[in-house]
Amino acid sequence: MKRHILKNPFFIALLLMLTLSVSWLGYSFAIRYFINKTAIQGQSTLRLATAGLRGELSRYEPLPELIADNKDIRNLLADPTDRYQVDMVNQQLKQITKNVAASVIYLIDKQGLTIASSNFDTPISFVNRNFDYRPYFQTAIKGGEGRYFALGSTSLKRGYYFAAPVHIRGEIVGVTVVKINVDGFETAWRGNENEIIVTDEYGIIFMSSREEWLFRSIKPVSSDLLFKFKSTRQYPVDRISELPITNLSQNNSQNDLLTNKDKGELISLPFAGDNKEFIFKHMEMKDAGWTVHILSPTSGARAQAYAVLLSIILSTLLAILLLAFLSQRRARIEEIMQTQKEAHEQLEKRVANRTKDLNEVNAKLLEEVEERVAAERRLRKTQEDLIQAGKLAALGQMSAALSHELNQPLAAVKSYADNAEAYLERERPEEAKENIKRISELTDRMAAISKHLRNFARKPKEQLGPIPLATVVNDAIEIMSGKLRSRSASISVDVPGNEIWVHGGQVRLQQVLVNLISNALDVEIKSVNTTEASTPEVNTPKVNTPKIEIRAGVNDGRVKIEVRDNGKGLEEDIINQIFDPFFTTKGINKGLGLGLSISYNIIRDFGGTLSARNHPDGGAIFTIELNEAERVVGAAE
Ligand code: ADP
User: Fold this and answer.
1) What pLDDT sits at residue 468?
2) Mean pLDDT of all residues in the chain?
3) Which of 2, 215, 385, 524 is most enclosed, with most CB atoms within 10 A?
């Protein structure tokens, strides 16, 4: 039997290795694909966020300068004590702030003191507050454009400060400042799955989609820097600490995931109590000195890659299962075919053996048949020889009886001849004639004996073969017609015309029938008990006239011919002798006692039997049984 392929450990190992390699390859491809896809998406989000931020900043950029050009502002700086002017500028600044959706707009004098502010009427009013420590003031008062991000020292709110100098007759007399809120951006970013942070040139995160990352840094922070922040009050120093970012791109197994380093780098970061992996990508905003970063989580990409891996594993397993199933089925079919082949071969072997046996038996049978045929031939020959020998022996035995049979008529012939001579001498021709007639009769009888004996002793020359029974019966009746007529006998024949054919010799069967009819005519009539005879002769009822019935029938290949008479029947004590040669009850000169004996031998020569019995209603029945023969087609009816 063929071993199942999945039972082969080598094959299993091979399949396993194949599955692993395919899965690994598929997974590597998928993770790279999805990570890169995430990176590309992150990149475009980053671009959008940066563009939004840049757009927003550029909207506010010219504002401080525009405000600085305002006549009222300049007037106020010319006379900061003018209460009316202060009120008016305050109101104006408040109105502009509202119009441009800024956080605060305020005016600072040369010393850094705020003289008017849009939030003049709020508890956190900047009026009278001194901002000379703020870098944006320090830049603007020197004629530059102050740009600065810081936590509001009063409001404690983060903001971006745009500052511009106010000139009066070429001299810088103060600074206008527009502070904008950055909360709005963050709120917008929060709707995204990516995290967006903005860092300043020191790496401090001052805008972030995640609150907890605010004022942390992405680079190490030196103590000098901390000191600087403290002095400028730019950031709450106690919150500044470096974010524990681990750069995974240095890791060998991960560094080729992002096919292009421009797409960012893989990092991991503690996130919601866990380490989370991100693609970290940056975009600089040179004007502002900022860098916008995007952190795109890779969990989605990894999940998709895992899904691909899972489906590869499942498909491979399914394929293996299918392969197993198919191979098992094939093995099963092969097994069945093998079994069938074996069974077939076995059957053929058995048939061959059987045929050989049969052939041997057949050959033996043929041999036996041949032997039997030869034996039968020998037996027949012996039988024929025996019959012949028996006949000759019987002839020998008969010699005595024969000499008596012949001597007696010879003696009678002698005395009749003497008598005839005497009568002639006495001129009594009538008597002489009578005696000569007797002599003639006696010689006839002797001739008959001699003829019978010749027949008896002679080996039959006649060929045996199929002979039409009805023809033979009719011929026999024809031969006997004279005797039948002289006895006024009636004969009825029930033999179907040309239907029954028997195996024998036509002349000899006819001889037998003649003998039987002759005997039937010779018997002493006892009664008229025979069944209805319908010959015209018996229509005129005659007492003690012989009636003979001949009938024939076929049963199982044997033809039975019965000859029945209405005589006194066979005596019980002689019934066993009637077939013996020279047995006769007909008295001297009447019977030769050879008819039945010869008939018996003839029928036996034909392979049949001749038997005699008495009919219960009287009369003797002689029965000839012969083998039926094939009808000869075209034979004369
Ligand atoms: P044969 O006729 O010369 O006597 P068979 O051999 O023909 O010689 O007959 C022998 C004897 O058998 C007859 O003498 C007779 O006694 C007896 N026999 C033959 N045929 C009949 C018959 N149909 N009825 C009664 N006896 C018969």
Assistant:
1) 93
2) 84
3) 215
Determine which residue's CA is closest to atom 26 belonging to ligand 1: 570
Q: What HEC string does 342-379 produce?
A: HHHHHHHHHHHHHHHHHHHHHHHHHHHHHHHHHHHHHH
Looking at the structure, give the CATH architecture of the domain made up of residues 185-299: 2-Layer Sandwich (3.30)
Q: Do domains 61-181 and 185-299 have the same CATH topology?
A: yes
CA of 42 to the centre of ligand 1 (A): 143
CATH of 61-181, one of 3.30.450.20, 2.102.10.10, 2.30.40.10, 1.10.3330.10: 3.30.450.20
Sequence ranges of the domains in the chain: 61-181, 185-299, 370-454, 456-526+542-627
With 90 as the cut, is the pLDDT of residue 2 above it? no
Distance CA 477, CA 468 (A): 15
271, exposed or middle or buried, with CB in 10 Å at 0-12, 13-18, 19+? Answer: middle
Q: How confident is the model at residue 458 (pLDDT cuts 50, 70, 90)?
A: low
The answer to whether the CB of 511 is under 6 A from ligand 1 is: no
Task: Give burial (CB, 10 Å; 0-12/13-18/19+) of 495.
Answer: buried
For residue 519, the CA-to-ligand 1 centroid distance in Å is 6
Atom of ligand 1 nearest to the CA of 567: 24
Q: Is 167 left (phi over 0), alpha (psi -120 to 50) or beta?
A: beta
Atom 10 of ligand 1, residue of closest alpha carbon: 584
Pair 510, 559: CB distance under 8 Å: no
Per-residue pLDDT reduced to its tens digit, 590-611? 777 888 988 998 899 899 999 9
**Nearest atom, ligand 1, residue 519 CA:** 20
Token digits of residue 630: 């094939």
The residue to mutate among 452, 527, 585, 614, having the most atoms of ligand 1 within 8 angstroms of its beta carbon, is 585
* More confident position, 254 or 606: 606
Amino acid at position 217, single letter: S
Tell me the pairing of strands 558-564 and 195-199: unpaired
Tokens of 311: 């489906």
pLDDT for 269 beyond 60: yes
- DSSP for 498-543, written as a single string: TT-EEEE-HHHHHHHHHHHHHHHHHSPB--S-SPPP-SHHHHS--T
pLDDT band at 380 (very low <50, low <70, confident <90, very high): low
Tell me the per-residue pLDDT of 548-558, one tens digit each, with 9 for 90 and over: 999 999 999 99
Q: Residue 543: CA atoms inside 13 Å, Cβ hemisphere, count?
A: 0
**Chain segment 300-310, per-residue pLDDT in tens:** 998 999 998 89
Query: What confidence score (pLDDT) does residue 451 get?
Result: 72
Q: What is the mean pLDDT of residues 13-21?
A: 86
pTM: 0.50
- Domain with residues 456-526+542-627, CATH architecture: 2-Layer Sandwich (3.30)
More confident residue, 529 or 514: 514
- The Cα–Cα gap between 633 and 636 comes to 9
